[in-house]
Write a structure and sequence with these properties.
Elements lengths: L1 H16 L16 H11 L5 H13 L3 E6 L4 E4 L1 H7 L3 H4 L4 H4 L4 H14 L3 E9 L2 E14 L8 E8 L1 H29 L3 H16 L3 E9 L5 E8 L4 H4 L11 H4 L5 E3 L26 E8 L5 E9 L7 H69 L6 H29 L8 E4 H11 L7 E4 L5 E4 L1 H17 L7 E9 L2 E8 L31 H11 L4 E5 L5 E8 L11
Parallel strand pairs: 12-14
Antiparallel strand pairs: 1-2, 1-5, 3-4, 4-5, 6-7, 6-10, 8-9, 9-10, 11-13, 14-15, 15-17, 16-17
Helix pairs in contact: 1-3, 8-9, 8-12, 9-12, 12-13, 14-15, 15-16
Length: about 600
């Protein structure tokens, strides 16, 4: 019915506008002349019966969408009550009036759309935003414009359908705002989690929080401690050039700032100048001259996991009532993330300082070890030479006991030189790094065995199936040399036997070196790893007590572990783990 009536009305309007309709031209409508508008309707549709007109009027008034017909002079010919309510103007007051008279603030956009239809004869839909007498706040409408014509004739007017989409637009805007907020929070979260440079971290927090809060500008004031232990305040600025604040002193613990710097809680004010805490402190009694205008005020303390107040986020805006409860919650959440990230940055900075101090200490130790070994070995060699010269000079006079003492003196020199070399090796064990390389452990063990002196009757058995590792070759070779060499040295039997085996343990390989020697009492399993410790008298078995300490230090530096299993009189098995793949940093996957 609706379509039929619309086509009938359109046809009648078209007929009236066609040359065949021998109607005299009507006088122009006068502004606000509702009666003349009705006459215009009757002129445009002379054959419309009262019943048809009533049916069309009923359709116009029944729909909740705003409907109107505009003639070529851009005057309202017909509309419904829904559109009259949208415009906030009585229905009768619309008839015969132009768009400019009815909606002056939006007339330019609407008139442009109406002219487009009148000129092109094509329908289209557009959004219109503005205010009417019914609403002081801007609203949005979706308006469909269609040409009114009959039987393919010229365009006689424009029919409009107006739908209020303000709520939908507001929902879309809120969803878009929420999406942008979530994206900003996501980016900020990733940046906070990855950034360990404190200054960059604080700037990122300030920028993100300023955007989230809707502030004109934001600042983060925080305390830091330098390497000398001195504490001082720094700050970051977002939203305005840093120069706008550079001329002012750092904020003091005034009545307004105190709750934030003391970590007492959030301060959110629609107008800071109206707060009783404002302006109570000399010398400015408020904001200093030249300060950015602040009316809306928001301040959030940033508190570490330990409860220590790291600093505070401060935001300002020149307009009143800008900061909402939602903005406060967003900044509070970001401040909590920032506190964790700043804790991590502080820990990282301390770790870097400790690493640098350790590197300095290690360098000093290297220099000391080198100088000490050089300076100590020179007089030792002199002692050895002097003893030999004395023995040569007394070749005819020296007693067998004197010769034995001279040999014992030289052996002590050799032992002391070995001890000095061992200390030097221990100081460097696990610290000097080479690039990891592909290491065939089976081949490496063959090279290790070739370097050792294996007496007749003794044997070394290396199990098949040894792995190929990505590792530093020299440290691994040192570990095997020390363990296999010790097994042969302390076996205390002519038929010494050493078995070397390995097995896969996920990302690690476990190696073992087993001997058939006298074994080690479980009471001493921990002592054997201590530097300079030996379980045998050095006069019985020559040793420095450094070899196993070096083994332990190297293995631990690779992220592995080392231990011994043994019983007195039942041999000993030394175990250690080594990563399948070492990184350049030395620690393999664990």
């Amino acid at each position: 019915m609706e379509n039929t009536d619309s086509r009938q009305e359109t046809a009648e309007l078209s007929e009236a506008a066609s040359p065949a309709a021998a109607e005299p031209a009507a006088a122009p409508l006068q502004r606000g002349d509702a009666g003349a508008a009705r006459l215009e309707q009757e002129r445009l549709a002379p054959h419309e019966s009262p019943a048809d007109r009533a049916l069309v009027d009923a359709f116009f008034q029944a729909t909740t969408a705003g409907l109107a017909v505009i003639d070529r002079d851009l005057r309202v010919v017909r509309l419904n009550q829904a559109l009259a309510d949208i415009n906030g103007i009585p229905l009768e007051a619309h008839l015969g009036r132009t768009i400019h008279e009815l909606l002056p603030e939006m007339s330019d956009a609407i008139v442009a759309n109406l002219r487009r239809v009148l000129e092109t004869g094509e329908a289209f839909t557009a959004e219109v935003t503005g205010t009417t007498r019914a609403s002081e706040r801007p609203r949005s409408w979706l308006v469909s414009y269609a040409p009114v014509r009959a039987n393919g004739g010229p365009v006689m007017g424009v029919g409009t359908i107006v739908l209020d989409i303000t709520e939908r637009k507001q929902t879309e805007d809120r969803l878009q705002e929420e999406g942008e907020t979530l994206e900003l929070l996501n980016r900020a979260g990733k940046q906070l989690a990855a950034e360990l440079d404190l200054e960059k971290l604080v700037q990122a927090v300030t920028d993100a929080a300023t955007r989230l809060s809707g502030a004109q500008f934001g600042a983060f004031f925080y305390n830091v401690t330098n390497a000398e232990g001195k504490s001082y305040m720094l700050y970051t600025i977002s939203g305005v050039p840093r120069e706008r604040f550079s001329g002012f002193a750092m904020p003091r613990n005034t009545d307004v700032f105190a709750p934030t710097f003391n970590g007492e809680g959030v301060v959110r004010l629609d107008d800071v100048t109206m707060d009783p805490r404002y302006g109570n402190n000399a010398s400015y009694h408020g904001m200093p001259k030249g300060h950015l205008p602040v009316v809306s005020y928001l301040a959030v303390p940033v508190v570490s996991r330990s409860g220590h107040v790291i600093g505070g986020l401060f935001f300002g805006h020149s307009e009143r009532g800008v900061f909402t409860e939602r903005a406060e919650k967003l900044v509070v959440g970001l401040a909590a993330q920032a506190a964790i990230a700043m804790d991590n940055a502080h820990l990282f900075r301390k770790a870097q300082q400790l690493i640098q101090a350790l590197e300095r200490s290690n360098n000093e130790l290297d220099r000391f070890a080198y100088v000490a070994s050089h300076d100590l070995k020179a007089p030792l060699r002199a002692i050895a030479n002097l003893s030999q010269w004395i023995e040569d000079d007394l070749v005819d006079k020296a007693t067998p006991e004197t010769r034995r003492y001279m040999e014992l003196l030289r052996s002590r020199v050799v032992r002391l030189e070995a001890l000095i070399d061992g200390i030097l090796r221990y100081s460097r064990a696990g610290r000097l790094r080479d690039k990891p390389e592909i290491v065939d452990v089976q081949k490496l063990l063959e090279d290790v065995v070739a370097q050792l002196t294996v007496h007749a009757g003794a044997s070394i058995e290396v199990a098949m199936g040894m792995p190929t590792l990505l590792a530093e070759r020299i440290p691994l070779e040192q570990v095997f040399l020390n363990l296999i060499g010790n097994a042969l040295k302390y076996a205390e039997r002519p038929d010494a036997r050493v078995d070397v085996r390995g097995r896969a343990l996920g990302d690690l390989w476990e190696f073992s070196v087993k001997d058939n020697g006298p074994g080690i009492d479980p009471r001493y399993h921990g002592k054997v790893w201590e530097i300079f410790q030996t379980l045998n008298a050095r006069d019985n078995i020559e040793g420095t007590g450094i070899g196993l300490a070096i083994v332990q230090k190297i293995v631990l530096s690779k992220g592995g572990r080392v231990w011994v299993e043994s019983e007195q009189g039942a041999g000993a098995t030394f175990f250690f783990t080594w990563p399948r793949m070492e990184t350049d940093g030395g620690l393999g996957m664990r």
